[in-house]
Amino acid sequence: MQPFTYERASSVKEAAVAVAAKPEATFISGGTNLLDLMKLEIERPTNLVDVSRLPLDQIRETPEGGLRIGAQVRNSDLAADPRVRSRYPMLSQALLAGASGQIRNKASTAGNLLQRTRCPYFYNRNMPCNKREPGSGCAALDGFNRMHAVLGAGEACIAVHPSDMAVAMSALEALVETVLPDGTTRTIPIGDLHRLPGSTPHVETALGHGEMIAAVTLPPPPPGRQLYRKVRDRASYAFALVSIAAVVEKSGDRIRSARVAIGGVAPKPWRTTEAEYVLAGAAAADPAFSEAAESALAGAVGRGGNDFKIPLAKRTIRQTLAAAVEGA
Fold first, then answer.
1. Residue 307, CA atoms < 13 Å, CB-side half-sphere
2. Boundaries of each FAD-binding PCMH-type domain copy (predicted)?
3. 127 contacts 121 by C-beta, under 8 angstroms
4. Once rounded to an integer, what is the mean pLDDT over residues 79-87?
5. What's residue 237's pLDDT?
6. Secondary structure of residue 17 in the 3-state scheme
7. Which helix (H) or strand (E) holds 155?
8. Structure letter (DSSP) for residue 205
9. 103-152 pLDDT tens trace
10. φ/ψ of residue 90, rounded to 5
11. Tens digit of each residue's pLDDT (9 = 90 or more) over 196-219
12. CA 128 – CA 140 distance, rounded (Å)
């Protein structure tokens, strides 16, 4: 591990200023992803700014009827919060489907959003990876790409975003609150937080250097039944092959509205408005579920090893929607 300096911030602005002052500085909170990357010298910060003790560990009601989740709220605390379990059950299900209990006890809300891909070529410094070393190439294109993206990827990178929580938050239309080094704040819709790789796959989010996530706000819960389904290689903790976050509102035997987000298939949580358009006003039955699934995966491109994800995602969307309408 490369030598680094360490300091503990006493305020959000102080943390943002400290990171902004040094090009190779970064924030650290739970460290469940960052420390692994530092040990492998994939991440090589010269200065760590510890934000884990800032007073950002509360979940508060908003005047609009939503919840404001501090950036330092632990994943296990968020999943267990009675308000989250009753009003945003999909979020609790996604959190409990992610990682191990030990990691959830340490991982923070902001850190979960900003965790980096688990692409094996990203972790292997002997292999080319445009995300780790821009311009070096992408070994996954013709390599072992069973876990990789079928939507939103490109020739420069086909890695997927690993978070379960972010997929549920995408369907819930969460807002990410940040503080910039000059003390100003901004609010980023979660759909705009993560970037597609394009020609700059190493630039993964819309955050500037030194910009710190302070909280995530959930709007009032959407009407309808929420459900999160995750398909993985084993029942214990593992990253998603495919995951689906669905919210379905039903009126009689028809669907009034729906929200669908997919995980494990793209470089960012993938909100599929095409499927939602198909479902709005349709009869709550398999033909609409199938058409929605086809629409959601219409632009999917496999690379050989990950071809199976396309039919798997379609089946998972159909089954998740069918289960969601039962209790809607």
1. 4
2. 1-223
3. yes
4. 98
5. 84
6. helix
7. none
8. B
9. 999 999 999 999 999 999 999 999 999 999 999 999 999 999 999 999 99
10. -60, -40
11. 999 999 999 999 999 999 999 999
12. 9
- Contact by Cβ (8 Å): 147, 116: no
Distance separating alpha carbons of residues 117 and 163, to the nearest angstrom: 9
The full set of domain ranges for the chain reads: 225-326
The two structure tokens encoding residue 13? 């602005």
DSSP run (H or E) holding 178: strand 175-179
39, two tokens: 């040990």
Q: Could you please state the CATH topology (level 3) that the domain comprising 225-326 is classified under.
A: Enolase-like; domain 1 (3.30.390)
201 close to 225: Cβ distance less than 8 angstroms = no
Q: Which two tokens stand for residue 87?
A: 């009003």
Unique residue bearing structure tokens 């079928």: 150
Q: Per-residue pLDDT averaged across 58-62, rounded?
A: 98
- DSSP-derived secondary structure for 262-296: EESSSSS-EE-HHHHHHHTT-BSSHHHHHHHHHHH
The single residue listed with the structure tokens 């995530």 is 216
Question: Which of 77-83's residues contact partners 24+ apart within 8 Å by CB, and which partners?
Answer: 78/109, 78/165, 79/104, 83/59
Location of structure tokens 């309408």: 325
Per-residue confidence (pLDDT) for residue 326, from 0 to 100: 87
pLDDT of 88 higher than 80 = yes
Question: DSSP letter at 116?
Answer: P
DSSP 118: -
Given a contact cutoff of 8 angstroms between Cβ atoms, the answer to whether 255 and 248 are in contact is yes
Which residues are within 8 A (CB) of 153 and not within 5 positions of it... i.e. 6 or more apart? 159, 196, 197, 266, 267, 301
Contact 7, 203 (CB under 8 A): no
Element of type H or E holding 83: helix 82-87
Whole-model pTM: value is: 0.96
How does pLDDT run across 15-48, given as a tens digit for each residue? Answer: 999 999 999 999 999 999 999 999 999 999 999 9
Query: In residues, how long is the chain?
Result: 328
DSSP 194: B
Task: Tell which residue, 37, 35, 38, 16, has the closest CA to residue 27.
Answer: 16
Question: Phi, psi at residue 261, to the nearest 5°?
Answer: -130, 145
